[in-house]
């Protein structure tokens, strides 16, 4: 699969500037359903995932704009792009001067897409196909999480993992257009950006993408708050 994924990505996408982030060019598709059918055939898997990797999602677009406006968030730092998809956030971090960029995704086509997109932008990105959400958070300074709250099962796993990373001092940057599963009470909004997406994916072609940090004092309902004995209550 890994060997055939790269030509498949190149065959089914077109290298084009990312709307609102024209310094970044990605191999993107115009239509989702024909490509999804082609993925199912290529992977010989009727349950193959939607080709998320062939689109720049609203959350990633917001992170891209935020890093362009605030390169200091990643400049000279070790950056990890969770659920990288096309590699949009990883490339944006590299362009903003990150010292190192690691991108992970569970989809083999995404891994191929991230590799070809990093190369198309002259960006150095280390790419891994891996579900890291049961692992300890990586030893990095910044984690980018673009559009990770689109389904319940993933949402449930992403929040504790990002909170564990933030508790270790990692700066977490979340981008999302306000999807149903977004845990807003656990987040602090940093900025909003108009992003141009596509009605192939969304109800509207123009969305408001929001960028968040983790709220340091957030506790899940029912989670005991640990207080050390010598700490005043
Ligand atoms: C909506 S796309 C967002 C892609 C990109 N971050 C962006 O904003 O354009 C979500 C991505 O999450 C990936 N994904 C889903 N579950 C994952 C997991 N457990 N670990 C890593 N990636 C995952 C999917 O394969 C998909 O590429």
Structure description:
This protein has six helices and nine strands. Helices cover 30% and strands 25% of the residues. It starts with a helix and ends in a 19-residue tail after the last strand. The model is unreliable at 222-233 (pLDDT under 50). Helix 5 links the parallel strand 4 (100-105) and strand 5. The chain is an alpha/beta fold and 233 residues long. Helix 3 runs parallel beside helix 4. The protein has helices at residues 2-12, 33-43, 58-69, 88-95, 108-120, 152-167, and strands at 14-18, 21-28, 78-82, 100-105, 126-129, 142-146, 171-176, 187-196, 206-214. It has a seven-stranded mixed β-sheet, sandwiched between helices. S-adenosylmethionine binds at residues 49, 52-53, 56-57, 59-60, 83-86, 88-89, 104-107, 110, 131, 133, 146-147, 150, 154.
């Amino acid at each position: 699969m890994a060997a055939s994924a790269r030509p498949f990505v190149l065959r089914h996408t077109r290298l084009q500037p990312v709307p609102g982030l024209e310094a970044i060019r990605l191999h993107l598709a115009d239509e989702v359903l024909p490509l999804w059918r082609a993925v199912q055939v290529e992977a010989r898997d009727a349950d193959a995932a939607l080709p998320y990797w062939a689109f720049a999602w609203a959350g990633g677009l917001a992170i891209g704009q935020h890093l362009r406006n605030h390169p200091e968030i990643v400049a000279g730092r070790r950056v990890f792009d969770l659920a990288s998809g096309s590699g949009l956030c990883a490339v944006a971090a590299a362009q903003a001067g990150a010292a190192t960029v690691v991108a992970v995704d569970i989809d083999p086509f995404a891994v191929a897409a991230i590799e070809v997109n990093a190369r198309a932008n002259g960006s150095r990105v280390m790419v891994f196909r891996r579900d890291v959400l049961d692992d300890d958070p990586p030893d990095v300074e910044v984690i980018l999480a673009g559009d990770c709250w689109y389904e319940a099962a993933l949402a449930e796993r992403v929040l504790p993992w990002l909170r564990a990373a933030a508790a270790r001092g990692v700066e977490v940057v979340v981008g999302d257009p306000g999807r149903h599963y977004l845990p807003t009470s656990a987040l602090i909004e940093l900025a909003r950006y108009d992003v141009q997406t596509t009605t192939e994916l969304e109800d509207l072609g123009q969305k408001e993408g929001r960028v968040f940090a983790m709220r340091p004092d957030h506790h899940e309902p029912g989670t005991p708050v640990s207080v050390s004995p010598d700490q005043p209550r």
